[in-house]
Write a structure and sequence with these properties.
The protein is α/β, with parallel strands linked by helices. It contains 7 helices and 12 strands. The strands form 4 sheets. The chain has a 6-stranded mixed beta sheet, sandwiched between helices. It has a two-stranded antiparallel sheet with strand order 1-2. A two-stranded antiparallel sheet has the order 3-6. Helix 1 crosses helix 3 and helix 3 packs across helix 4. The longest helix has 15 residues. It is globular, with a radius of gyration of 16 Å. The model has no long low-confidence stretch (mean pLDDT 93).
């Protein structure tokens, strides 16, 4: 039986071969994305810490590790046929995962969900539609989940575009009710890390 590694209870557990990648990504998140300061989140809530995952996912090494580890998560269970998420937090993530999936021999396209429809041309909500088809099984990828509001929007917009949301993954779950809100809608968030993992790294 292969040894497996993981962090706090509830977050992703990886085969031991990913131990170094997981620890390194966690270190980059702590160094570049975590700040202990008062901040107002996009949800309107106040917090005494902030996790800006884009500082990590837009870093070359951070993007590489993000792609590897999300692909490792997606290889467990039902693999999606495409990956997508709401701009702009998900943009570097879905790109990294799509590229890595190709390198790992099971290429999946990426798509990006706009926060509002394009104001000219096609007026579409989703970018990358020519790589998608009706009924396609997709995974929604997020950077940070707080209340779950953006995740639920991504799920709803994907469904309205004819896609079937089969999985929902995030880089960091802040443990502030988002997973529960998404669960009420019938979906389970699979976090790579919990906020405690980042805080204690």
């Amino acid at each position: 039986m292969n040894q497996r590694i993981g962090g706090s209870c509830g977050c992703a557990v990886f085969p031991a071969e990913f131990a170094a990648d997981r620890q390194r990504l966690l270190s980059i998140l702590k160094e570049k994305s975590y700040e202990k300061r008062k901040v107002t989140l996009s949800s309107g809530r106040e917090s005494d810490f902030y996790i800006d995952c884009r500082q990590t996912t837009l870093d070359a090494e951070g993007a590489l590790l993000t792609g590897r580890l999300f692909c490792a998560m997606l290889e467990e269970g039902e693999r999606p046929e495409a990956v997508g998420g709401i701009t702009m937090g998900a943009d570097p993530i879905v790109t990294a995962v799509s590229l890595t999936s190709f390198l790992r021999g099971w290429p999946v396209p990426a798509f990006i969900i706009r926060k509002e429809p394009k104001k000219h041309g096609t007026t579409q909500w989703i970018e990358g539609t020519k790589n998608l088809r009706e009924g396609m099984r997709v995974a929604i990828l997020e950077d940070v989940v707080t209340t779950g509001a953006s995740t639920l929007k991504a799920i709803e917009r994907s469904k309205l575009s004819g896609l079937t949301v089969s999985r929902v993954l995030c880089l960091v779950d802040r443990n502030e009710g988002g997973a529960e809100a998404v669960a009420e809608a019938g979906y389970r968030i699979e976090p790579m890390f919990l906020k405690e993992d980042v805080e204690n790294a």
